[in-house]
Amino acid sequence: MCGILAVLGCSDDSQAKRVRVLELSRRLKHRGPDWSGLYQHGDNYLSHQRLAIIDPASGDQPLFNEDQTIVVTVNGEIYNHEELRKRLTAAGHKFRTGSDCDVIAHLYEEHGEDFVDMLDGMFSFVLLDTRNNTYIAARDAIGITSLYIGWGLDGSVWISSELKGLNDDCEHFEVFPPGHLYSSKTGGFKRWYNPLWFAETIPSTPYDPLVLRCAFENAVIKRLMTDVPFGVLLSGGLDSSLVASITARYLAGTKAAKQWGAQLHSFCVGLEGSPDLKAAREVADYLGTVHHEFHFTVQDGIDAIEDVIYHIETYDVTTIRASTPMFLMSRKIKSLGVKMVISGEGSDEIFGGYLYFHKALNREEFHQETCRKIKALHQYDCLRANKSTSAWGLEARVPFLDKEFINVAMSIDPEAKMINMDQKRIEKWVLRRAFEDEEHPYLPKHILYRQKEQFSDGVGYSWIDGLKAHAELHVTDKMMLHAEHIFPHNTPVTKEAYYYRMIFERLFPQNSAKLTVPGGASIACSTAKAIEWDASWSNNLDPSGRAALGAHNAAYKKNMGPVGQVKLGPNIIDNVPRMMDISASELVIQG
């Protein structure tokens, strides 16, 4: 992932202002250590910190059209750039580089502001039209790439990949909404991404496993586009295992394989002896990947907390817990010379994989909750995956959040997605069933139908309990007594949350900063609306899922037989909360 910073209409074209923009842009250098670029046109500044993935030799930014009147700074990848390039070339356009992002300026020349939906990829960009001194900015459909917008007292507009690029110089700033475009011509946002599922209308397309399989394979294959070494994040759970399996199956014959070899590299992180490491090793052995296993201690994680909060820019408890192992792993991966990884975020949101979905009242409620979860991904898992990796100049690609795949998956009648224990349909059954193949299996059946199991003395007990014990040392009961007065917005209700909030507000003291972080009641990563599914939940709200024990017990009371059978220890009341404490970290720890 690259880092972009644009300062537009600041009424200051002095050398001092240019120096200030350069200074702020350097705060994003961790995202793009390969090259720095700055373009100035009057009082407009476009800067870029590049992580070179496609065309490392000539794709430095900002990018231009033929006569350099259109200037673009981009963070992301455009997977259909070759197809777009052919069309634009036929229309008479000439390209300066082989960068996938080079198509953006030319698409704007052809279509004006109405081209963003033509882009298939993850992206954030700012485009300046020097002919009339107007500009647009846009963010990808789901918010895979991070982006913020701010306003200065001098009338300037600031756009940055991270908070730290603008928080000290803006009077007000906020999250740039996913799927939107900001235009200087109107001074406001408009939504460019308008899929059918966004209106939360209940779909009725019958479930077809082969259609779903084909859509996801295509999503993974298009993300093999790279000119640099890459790998997959593999934890041994369903989602990351499917990503790894498809990547291993189709890697041979690709341009990437010709450059870097056809044997896939996989990466996993965990505490010494963690069952997650064992599960990942089993899948890696089955797929024949070159597997890299990284260990960290609880103290390693605690020591990294302040750096994690600085980079991921949130005080959300589950996000920080899940980001820390990913942050540590990303540093190790980058040290091996790898610059891109493919990852498994988004599956639980699309297919209702979280445990609380067992309590969905009907197909309508189930579908509407998946819609709400996808819309909120940019505040949680996308933020974690993007910033934990970008902290070390590593790019994460997420095929489950492919636009076409989401359209296919979200058009399925939600009745097929619902958990039905009488029919032995566990969570994400439609995804598991789609990849059953007796002749050419993608995964062994016991892995394909593996449930979210308990964390034992590995990540679950030691990591979470260690964080809580550390917070106890720094936050007193007296401090908690006055928490609502010290932090009236999103008041922390645990010492761990209070501890993270203190660090966040020291790093980002502005009022706007705290407003960029989501809050509200939650059960096991649910939205506030889903709490209505079980009356008991409203009396015991806990975003980590502690109040959702009933959902788990009800879900697994019946014996499902050898395929998909759940193994729970005798101390289920102790184990389940720990299992659900890190449910948001599925990619890093569970899959």
Describe how the helices and strands are arranged.
Layout: E1 3-8, H1 15-25, E2 35-41, E3 44-50, E4 63-64, E5 70-78, H2 81-90, H3 103-111, E6 121-129, E7 134-139, E8 148-151, E9 157-160, E10 172-175, E11 180-183, E12 188-191, H4 209-222, E13 230-233, H5 238-250, H6 255-260, E14 265-270, H7 275-287, E15 290-295, H8 298-312, H9 317-335, E16 340-342, H10 347-351, H11 363-376, H12 381-390, E17 395-397, H13 403-409, H14 414-417, H15 429-434, H16 445-448, H17 459-474, H18 477-481, H19 483-486, H20 495-507, H21 511-515, H22 549-555, H23 572-581, H24 586-590
Parallel strand pairs: 13-14, 13-16, 14-15, 16-17
Antiparallel strand pairs: 1-3, 1-9, 2-3, 4-5, 5-6, 6-7, 7-11, 8-9, 8-10, 11-12
Helix pairs in contact: 2-3, 4-13, 5-7, 8-9, 8-17, 8-20, 9-12, 17-20
Written account of the structure:
One of its GO terms (biological process) is response to stress. Keywords: Amino-acid biosynthesis, Asparagine biosynthesis, ATP-binding, Glutamine amidotransferase, Ligase, Nucleotide-binding. Pathway: Amino-acid biosynthesis; L-asparagine biosynthesis; L-asparagine from L-aspartate (L-Gln route): step 1/1. With 591 residues, the protein is of the alpha+beta class. It folds into two domains: 192 residues, Aminohydrolase, N-terminal nucleophile (Ntn) domain (Glutamine Phosphoribosylpyrophosphate, subunit 1, domain 1), CATH 3.60.20.10; 342 residues, HUPs (Rossmann fold, 3-Layer(aba) Sandwich). The strands form three sheets. It has a six-stranded antiparallel sheet. Helix 8 packs across helix 17 and helix 9 runs parallel beside helix 12. The chain is globular and about 65 Å long. The C terminus is likely disordered.
